[in-house]
Amino acid sequence: MKAPRNRAVRSAVHRHDHLSKQGLLERAFTFAFRGLVYAQIWEDPAVDLEALAVTPDCHIVQIASGGCNVLSYLTANPRAITAVDLNTAHIALNKLKLIAARELPDYAAFHRFFARANSKDNIAAYKRYVRPHLDEPTRRYWEGRDMIGRPRIGGFAKGVYKRGLLGNFIGAAHFIAKLNGVDPKVMLAANSMQEQREIFDREIAPVFDKGFIKWLTDQPASLFGLGIPPSQYEALAGDNKMAVVLRERLEKLACDFDLKDNYFAMQAFGRGYGDSPSASLPPYLQEANYADIVARVDRVEVRHANFVEYLREMPDASLDRYVLLDAQDWMTDEILTNLWAEITRTAKPDARVLFRTAGVETILPGRVPEAILARWTYRAEDSLDYTKRDRSSIYGGVHLYVLGDAA
To answer: What is the pTM of this model?
Structure first.
Protein backbone atom coordinates (compact mmCIF):
# COMPACT_ATOMS: atom_id res chain seq x y z
CA MET A 1 0.00 0.00 0.00
CA LYS A 2 1.20 3.48 -0.82
CA ALA A 3 0.63 6.80 0.89
CA PRO A 4 -1.73 8.42 1.59
CA ARG A 5 -3.83 5.28 1.89
CA ASN A 6 -1.26 3.58 4.07
CA ARG A 7 -1.69 6.47 6.51
CA ALA A 8 -5.38 5.55 6.75
CA VAL A 9 -4.46 2.08 8.00
CA ARG A 10 -1.88 3.46 10.42
CA SER A 11 -4.27 6.06 11.81
CA ALA A 12 -6.81 3.34 12.57
CA VAL A 13 -4.37 0.87 14.12
CA HIS A 14 -1.68 3.10 15.64
CA ARG A 15 -3.02 4.61 18.85
CA HIS A 16 0.05 4.65 21.11
CA ASP A 17 3.55 6.11 21.13
CA HIS A 18 5.66 4.17 18.67
CA LEU A 19 8.27 3.24 21.31
CA SER A 20 5.75 1.98 23.86
CA LYS A 21 4.92 -1.72 24.14
CA GLN A 22 1.48 -1.15 22.59
CA GLY A 23 2.96 1.07 19.90
CA LEU A 24 5.48 -1.58 18.90
CA LEU A 25 2.71 -4.17 18.74
CA GLU A 26 0.62 -1.89 16.54
CA ARG A 27 3.49 -1.37 14.13
CA ALA A 28 4.27 -5.07 14.04
CA PHE A 29 0.64 -5.73 13.12
CA THR A 30 0.74 -3.15 10.33
CA PHE A 31 3.83 -4.87 8.91
CA ALA A 32 2.19 -8.31 9.11
CA PHE A 33 -1.00 -7.02 7.45
CA ARG A 34 0.74 -5.74 4.31
CA GLY A 35 0.54 -8.99 2.35
CA LEU A 36 -2.22 -11.50 1.69
CA VAL A 37 -4.21 -11.98 4.88
CA TYR A 38 -7.38 -13.86 3.90
CA ALA A 39 -7.44 -16.26 0.96
CA GLN A 40 -10.97 -16.97 2.20
CA ILE A 41 -13.14 -14.39 3.94
CA TRP A 42 -14.50 -15.40 7.37
CA GLU A 43 -17.94 -13.83 7.40
CA ASP A 44 -20.86 -16.14 6.64
CA PRO A 45 -22.53 -14.99 3.40
CA ALA A 46 -25.73 -16.91 4.13
CA VAL A 47 -26.27 -14.75 7.21
CA ASP A 48 -25.16 -11.63 5.35
CA LEU A 49 -27.58 -12.10 2.48
CA GLU A 50 -30.48 -12.61 4.86
CA ALA A 51 -29.56 -9.52 6.87
CA LEU A 52 -28.92 -7.32 3.85
CA ALA A 53 -32.20 -8.21 2.11
CA VAL A 54 -30.69 -7.29 -1.25
CA THR A 55 -33.08 -6.18 -4.01
CA PRO A 56 -32.34 -5.81 -7.74
CA ASP A 57 -31.94 -2.01 -7.43
CA CYS A 58 -29.35 -2.23 -4.63
CA HIS A 59 -25.87 -0.76 -4.82
CA ILE A 60 -23.72 -2.53 -2.21
CA VAL A 61 -20.52 -1.00 -0.87
CA GLN A 62 -18.30 -3.40 1.03
CA ILE A 63 -14.80 -4.07 2.21
CA ALA A 64 -13.39 -6.54 -0.30
CA SER A 65 -11.18 -8.75 1.88
CA GLY A 66 -10.66 -12.14 0.16
CA GLY A 67 -13.51 -11.60 -2.31
CA CYS A 68 -15.62 -14.65 -1.44
CA ASN A 69 -18.57 -12.56 -0.29
CA VAL A 70 -18.18 -10.01 -3.08
CA LEU A 71 -18.95 -12.75 -5.60
CA SER A 72 -21.41 -14.54 -3.33
CA TYR A 73 -23.56 -11.41 -3.03
CA LEU A 74 -24.06 -11.57 -6.80
CA THR A 75 -26.41 -14.49 -6.20
CA ALA A 76 -28.90 -11.94 -4.77
CA ASN A 77 -28.91 -10.03 -8.09
CA PRO A 78 -27.86 -6.54 -6.90
CA ARG A 79 -27.57 -3.72 -9.41
CA ALA A 80 -23.95 -3.02 -8.47
CA ILE A 81 -21.25 -3.91 -5.96
CA THR A 82 -18.32 -1.67 -5.12
CA ALA A 83 -15.59 -3.53 -3.23
CA VAL A 84 -12.94 -1.36 -1.59
CA ASP A 85 -9.79 -2.37 0.24
CA LEU A 86 -6.47 -0.86 1.26
CA ASN A 87 -4.63 -4.19 1.02
CA THR A 88 -3.13 -4.56 -2.48
CA ALA A 89 -3.02 -8.35 -2.14
CA HIS A 90 -6.77 -8.46 -1.50
CA ILE A 91 -7.38 -6.17 -4.47
CA ALA A 92 -5.35 -8.54 -6.66
CA LEU A 93 -7.23 -11.59 -5.34
CA ASN A 94 -10.63 -9.98 -5.99
CA LYS A 95 -9.66 -9.06 -9.55
CA LEU A 96 -8.29 -12.55 -10.16
CA LYS A 97 -11.57 -14.12 -9.03
CA LEU A 98 -13.66 -11.79 -11.17
CA ILE A 99 -11.62 -12.35 -14.33
CA ALA A 100 -11.47 -16.09 -13.71
CA ALA A 101 -15.25 -16.24 -13.35
CA ARG A 102 -15.68 -14.43 -16.64
CA GLU A 103 -12.93 -16.12 -18.67
CA LEU A 104 -12.49 -19.71 -17.49
CA PRO A 105 -14.30 -22.05 -19.88
CA ASP A 106 -16.67 -23.83 -17.51
CA TYR A 107 -17.68 -24.56 -13.93
CA ALA A 108 -15.25 -27.47 -13.64
CA ALA A 109 -12.31 -25.17 -14.32
CA PHE A 110 -13.62 -22.50 -11.94
CA HIS A 111 -14.24 -25.06 -9.20
CA ARG A 112 -10.80 -26.59 -9.65
CA PHE A 113 -9.16 -23.16 -9.46
CA PHE A 114 -10.84 -21.85 -6.30
CA ALA A 115 -12.49 -24.80 -4.52
CA ARG A 116 -9.67 -27.29 -4.97
CA ALA A 117 -6.95 -24.66 -5.48
CA ASN A 118 -4.21 -27.29 -5.53
CA SER A 119 -3.69 -28.42 -9.14
CA LYS A 120 -0.98 -27.64 -11.67
CA ASP A 121 -3.79 -27.46 -14.22
CA ASN A 122 -4.75 -24.18 -12.55
CA ILE A 123 -1.46 -22.62 -13.61
CA ALA A 124 -2.04 -23.66 -17.21
CA ALA A 125 -5.59 -22.27 -17.03
CA TYR A 126 -4.25 -19.02 -15.58
CA LYS A 127 -1.79 -18.58 -18.44
CA ARG A 128 -4.30 -19.45 -21.17
CA TYR A 129 -7.55 -17.90 -19.98
CA VAL A 130 -6.93 -15.45 -17.14
CA ARG A 131 -3.57 -13.77 -17.59
CA PRO A 132 -4.37 -12.05 -20.91
CA HIS A 133 -7.28 -10.20 -19.29
CA LEU A 134 -5.62 -8.98 -16.08
CA ASP A 135 -4.56 -5.38 -15.65
CA GLU A 136 -0.83 -4.88 -15.29
CA PRO A 137 -0.67 -4.36 -11.47
CA THR A 138 -2.75 -7.50 -10.86
CA ARG A 139 -0.66 -9.56 -13.26
CA ARG A 140 2.53 -8.25 -11.68
CA TYR A 141 1.29 -9.20 -8.23
CA TRP A 142 0.39 -12.79 -9.11
CA GLU A 143 3.54 -13.37 -11.12
CA GLY A 144 5.71 -11.92 -8.38
CA ARG A 145 7.00 -13.76 -5.34
CA ASP A 146 5.87 -13.82 -1.75
CA MET A 147 8.00 -13.01 1.29
CA ILE A 148 9.72 -16.42 1.23
CA GLY A 149 10.31 -16.44 -2.51
CA ARG A 150 7.44 -18.59 -3.78
CA PRO A 151 5.57 -17.55 -6.96
CA ARG A 152 2.23 -16.22 -5.73
CA ILE A 153 0.18 -17.78 -8.53
CA GLY A 154 1.80 -21.09 -7.61
CA GLY A 155 -0.40 -21.14 -4.52
CA PHE A 156 -3.26 -22.35 -6.70
CA ALA A 157 -1.20 -25.43 -7.55
CA LYS A 158 -0.26 -26.23 -3.97
CA GLY A 159 -3.20 -25.19 -1.79
CA VAL A 160 -3.77 -21.46 -1.71
CA TYR A 161 -5.85 -21.69 1.48
CA LYS A 162 -2.73 -22.75 3.32
CA ARG A 163 -1.12 -19.42 2.41
CA GLY A 164 -1.62 -15.87 3.56
CA LEU A 165 -1.52 -14.66 7.13
CA LEU A 166 -4.62 -16.62 8.14
CA GLY A 167 -3.55 -19.79 6.31
CA ASN A 168 -0.18 -19.67 8.04
CA PHE A 169 -1.89 -19.07 11.38
CA ILE A 170 -4.10 -22.14 10.95
CA GLY A 171 -1.05 -24.16 9.93
CA ALA A 172 0.82 -23.01 13.03
CA ALA A 173 -2.20 -23.88 15.19
CA HIS A 174 -2.23 -27.39 13.71
CA PHE A 175 1.50 -27.72 14.41
CA ILE A 176 1.14 -26.62 18.03
CA ALA A 177 -1.85 -28.91 18.55
CA LYS A 178 0.16 -31.86 17.21
CA LEU A 179 2.98 -31.03 19.61
CA ASN A 180 0.36 -31.45 22.32
CA GLY A 181 -0.72 -34.82 20.95
CA VAL A 182 -3.79 -33.74 18.95
CA ASP A 183 -4.30 -33.58 15.19
CA PRO A 184 -7.14 -31.08 14.55
CA LYS A 185 -8.15 -33.11 11.49
CA VAL A 186 -9.58 -35.65 13.93
CA MET A 187 -12.71 -33.47 13.94
CA LEU A 188 -13.34 -34.47 10.31
CA ALA A 189 -13.90 -38.09 11.38
CA ALA A 190 -17.22 -37.14 13.02
CA ASN A 191 -20.32 -38.55 11.34
CA SER A 192 -22.86 -36.66 13.43
CA MET A 193 -23.13 -33.56 15.56
CA GLN A 194 -23.08 -35.79 18.63
CA GLU A 195 -19.73 -37.20 17.50
CA GLN A 196 -18.50 -33.66 16.82
CA ARG A 197 -19.24 -32.79 20.44
CA GLU A 198 -17.59 -35.94 21.74
CA ILE A 199 -14.41 -35.42 19.70
CA PHE A 200 -14.16 -31.75 20.62
CA ASP A 201 -14.59 -32.41 24.36
CA ARG A 202 -12.17 -35.34 24.33
CA GLU A 203 -9.47 -34.14 21.93
CA ILE A 204 -9.57 -30.40 21.26
CA ALA A 205 -10.83 -28.66 24.42
CA PRO A 206 -8.07 -29.99 26.75
CA VAL A 207 -5.38 -28.31 24.61
CA PHE A 208 -6.58 -24.91 25.85
CA ASP A 209 -5.81 -25.94 29.44
CA LYS A 210 -2.10 -26.34 28.67
CA GLY A 211 0.11 -23.80 30.36
CA PHE A 212 2.01 -22.97 27.20
CA ILE A 213 -1.22 -22.36 25.26
CA LYS A 214 -2.49 -20.04 27.99
CA TRP A 215 0.78 -18.12 27.93
CA LEU A 216 0.96 -17.98 24.15
CA THR A 217 -2.56 -16.74 23.65
CA ASP A 218 -2.00 -14.06 26.30
CA GLN A 219 0.42 -12.44 23.82
CA PRO A 220 -1.49 -10.09 21.47
CA ALA A 221 0.93 -10.83 18.62
CA SER A 222 -0.15 -14.49 18.69
CA LEU A 223 -3.45 -13.51 17.04
CA PHE A 224 -2.03 -11.31 14.27
CA GLY A 225 -2.62 -14.29 11.98
CA LEU A 226 -6.36 -13.86 12.52
CA GLY A 227 -6.06 -10.26 11.35
CA ILE A 228 -6.62 -9.02 14.92
CA PRO A 229 -4.77 -5.81 15.86
CA PRO A 230 -3.94 -5.05 19.51
CA SER A 231 -7.06 -2.91 20.03
CA GLN A 232 -9.31 -5.69 18.76
CA TYR A 233 -7.44 -8.24 20.89
CA GLU A 234 -8.54 -6.28 23.97
CA ALA A 235 -12.17 -6.23 22.80
CA LEU A 236 -12.07 -9.95 22.02
CA ALA A 237 -10.63 -10.91 25.41
CA GLY A 238 -12.88 -8.67 27.49
CA ASP A 239 -12.58 -9.76 31.14
CA ASN A 240 -11.57 -13.33 30.28
CA LYS A 241 -8.29 -15.03 29.50
CA MET A 242 -7.80 -15.29 25.76
CA ALA A 243 -7.46 -19.09 25.89
CA VAL A 244 -10.99 -19.27 27.34
CA VAL A 245 -12.42 -17.01 24.63
CA LEU A 246 -10.70 -18.92 21.83
CA ARG A 247 -11.89 -22.26 23.19
CA GLU A 248 -15.47 -20.97 23.29
CA ARG A 249 -15.32 -19.66 19.74
CA LEU A 250 -13.74 -22.87 18.45
CA GLU A 251 -16.33 -24.91 20.34
CA LYS A 252 -19.10 -23.11 18.47
CA LEU A 253 -17.34 -23.75 15.17
CA ALA A 254 -16.82 -27.42 15.98
CA CYS A 255 -20.11 -28.28 17.67
CA ASP A 256 -22.95 -25.90 16.80
CA PHE A 257 -23.23 -26.72 13.08
CA ASP A 258 -23.08 -29.94 11.12
CA LEU A 259 -19.57 -30.12 9.64
CA LYS A 260 -21.07 -31.26 6.34
CA ASP A 261 -22.75 -27.85 6.03
CA ASN A 262 -19.95 -25.67 7.36
CA TYR A 263 -17.06 -24.92 5.03
CA PHE A 264 -15.54 -22.64 7.68
CA ALA A 265 -15.02 -25.64 9.92
CA MET A 266 -13.55 -27.58 6.99
CA GLN A 267 -11.03 -24.78 6.48
CA ALA A 268 -10.16 -24.63 10.17
CA PHE A 269 -9.78 -28.36 10.75
CA GLY A 270 -8.92 -29.59 7.25
CA ARG A 271 -7.10 -26.53 5.79
CA GLY A 272 -9.23 -26.53 2.65
CA TYR A 273 -12.69 -27.26 1.30
CA GLY A 274 -14.06 -30.80 1.39
CA ASP A 275 -13.30 -33.29 -1.38
CA SER A 276 -16.75 -34.79 -1.90
CA PRO A 277 -19.14 -33.58 -4.64
CA SER A 278 -21.55 -32.52 -1.89
CA ALA A 279 -18.93 -30.61 0.11
CA SER A 280 -20.01 -27.31 1.65
CA LEU A 281 -18.82 -24.31 -0.38
CA PRO A 282 -19.35 -20.54 -0.44
CA PRO A 283 -22.28 -19.55 -2.67
CA TYR A 284 -20.03 -18.29 -5.47
CA LEU A 285 -18.40 -21.72 -5.78
CA GLN A 286 -21.63 -23.72 -5.83
CA GLU A 287 -22.49 -25.11 -9.26
CA ALA A 288 -26.12 -24.00 -9.01
CA ASN A 289 -24.96 -20.37 -8.83
CA TYR A 290 -22.24 -20.50 -11.46
CA ALA A 291 -24.26 -19.18 -14.40
CA ASP A 292 -25.55 -16.23 -12.36
CA ILE A 293 -22.05 -15.36 -11.14
CA VAL A 294 -20.70 -15.34 -14.70
CA ALA A 295 -23.61 -13.29 -16.01
CA ARG A 296 -23.32 -10.66 -13.26
CA VAL A 297 -19.58 -10.45 -12.68
CA ASP A 298 -19.25 -7.16 -14.58
CA ARG A 299 -21.49 -5.48 -11.98
CA VAL A 300 -18.58 -5.54 -9.54
CA GLU A 301 -16.12 -2.67 -9.30
CA VAL A 302 -12.96 -3.25 -7.23
CA ARG A 303 -11.20 -0.16 -5.92
CA HIS A 304 -7.96 0.30 -3.99
CA ALA A 305 -9.42 2.92 -1.67
CA ASN A 306 -10.35 3.81 1.86
CA PHE A 307 -14.04 3.24 2.63
CA VAL A 308 -14.63 6.82 3.78
CA GLU A 309 -12.73 8.25 0.82
CA TYR A 310 -14.98 6.35 -1.54
CA LEU A 311 -18.14 7.52 0.22
CA ARG A 312 -17.00 11.13 0.00
CA GLU A 313 -17.03 10.79 -3.79
CA MET A 314 -20.64 9.65 -3.85
CA PRO A 315 -23.78 11.85 -4.02
CA ASP A 316 -26.27 12.18 -1.18
CA ALA A 317 -28.77 9.31 -0.85
CA SER A 318 -27.07 7.18 -3.53
CA LEU A 319 -26.23 3.87 -1.82
CA ASP A 320 -28.28 1.01 -0.38
CA ARG A 321 -26.16 -1.49 1.53
CA TYR A 322 -22.89 -1.19 3.48
CA VAL A 323 -20.77 -4.12 4.67
CA LEU A 324 -17.98 -3.15 7.06
CA LEU A 325 -16.77 -6.59 8.18
CA ASP A 326 -15.00 -6.05 11.55
CA ALA A 327 -13.04 -2.96 10.49
CA GLN A 328 -14.74 -0.69 13.03
CA ASP A 329 -13.04 -2.57 15.86
CA TRP A 330 -9.82 -0.95 14.68
CA MET A 331 -11.16 2.59 14.55
CA THR A 332 -10.86 5.57 16.86
CA ASP A 333 -13.98 7.53 17.79
CA GLU A 334 -13.01 10.24 15.30
CA ILE A 335 -12.71 7.77 12.42
CA LEU A 336 -15.96 6.07 13.41
CA THR A 337 -17.76 9.41 13.43
CA ASN A 338 -16.40 10.37 10.01
CA LEU A 339 -17.41 6.99 8.64
CA TRP A 340 -20.96 7.10 9.95
CA ALA A 341 -21.42 10.71 8.89
CA GLU A 342 -20.63 9.67 5.32
CA ILE A 343 -22.71 6.51 5.51
CA THR A 344 -25.69 8.53 6.73
CA ARG A 345 -25.24 11.20 4.05
CA THR A 346 -24.98 8.70 1.19
CA ALA A 347 -27.64 6.27 2.44
CA LYS A 348 -30.99 5.93 0.71
CA PRO A 349 -34.14 5.44 2.82
CA ASP A 350 -34.18 1.95 4.37
CA ALA A 351 -30.46 1.49 3.74
CA ARG A 352 -28.79 -1.25 5.77
CA VAL A 353 -25.36 -1.46 7.43
CA LEU A 354 -23.94 -4.82 8.46
CA PHE A 355 -20.80 -5.31 10.54
CA ARG A 356 -19.15 -7.64 13.00
CA THR A 357 -17.32 -7.13 16.28
CA ALA A 358 -14.80 -9.17 18.22
CA GLY A 359 -16.78 -8.50 21.38
CA VAL A 360 -20.46 -9.23 21.82
CA GLU A 361 -22.00 -5.75 21.94
CA THR A 362 -22.36 -3.16 19.20
CA ILE A 363 -19.58 -0.61 19.60
CA LEU A 364 -21.39 2.47 18.26
CA PRO A 365 -23.39 3.91 21.24
CA GLY A 366 -21.32 6.51 23.07
CA ARG A 367 -18.74 6.65 20.28
CA VAL A 368 -20.77 7.90 17.30
CA PRO A 369 -22.67 11.15 18.02
CA GLU A 370 -26.30 10.61 18.91
CA ALA A 371 -27.40 13.06 16.20
CA ILE A 372 -26.08 10.57 13.64
CA LEU A 373 -26.95 7.33 15.39
CA ALA A 374 -30.52 8.42 16.14
CA ARG A 375 -31.31 8.25 12.45
CA TRP A 376 -30.63 4.51 12.50
CA THR A 377 -32.44 1.65 14.17
CA TYR A 378 -30.38 -1.15 15.64
CA ARG A 379 -32.03 -4.50 14.96
CA ALA A 380 -30.98 -6.00 18.28
CA GLU A 381 -33.07 -9.18 18.20
CA ASP A 382 -32.18 -9.94 14.60
CA SER A 383 -28.51 -9.25 15.32
CA LEU A 384 -28.46 -11.80 18.14
CA ASP A 385 -30.01 -14.35 15.78
CA TYR A 386 -27.49 -13.64 13.03
CA THR A 387 -24.65 -13.98 15.53
CA LYS A 388 -25.96 -17.35 16.67
CA ARG A 389 -26.25 -18.63 13.09
CA ASP A 390 -22.96 -17.28 11.69
CA ARG A 391 -21.10 -20.48 10.84
CA SER A 392 -17.64 -18.89 10.94
CA SER A 393 -18.14 -18.55 14.72
CA ILE A 394 -15.11 -16.33 15.32
CA TYR A 395 -16.98 -13.08 16.01
CA GLY A 396 -18.73 -12.06 19.19
CA GLY A 397 -21.42 -10.10 17.39
CA VAL A 398 -23.07 -9.64 13.98
CA HIS A 399 -24.87 -6.29 13.90
CA LEU A 400 -27.51 -4.80 11.59
CA TYR A 401 -28.57 -1.15 11.44
CA VAL A 402 -31.42 0.10 9.23
CA LEU A 403 -31.90 3.76 8.32
CA GLY A 404 -35.08 5.25 9.72
CA ASP A 405 -36.55 1.85 10.54
CA ALA A 406 -38.61 1.46 13.67
CA ALA A 407 -39.33 -2.26 13.22
So the answer is: 0.90
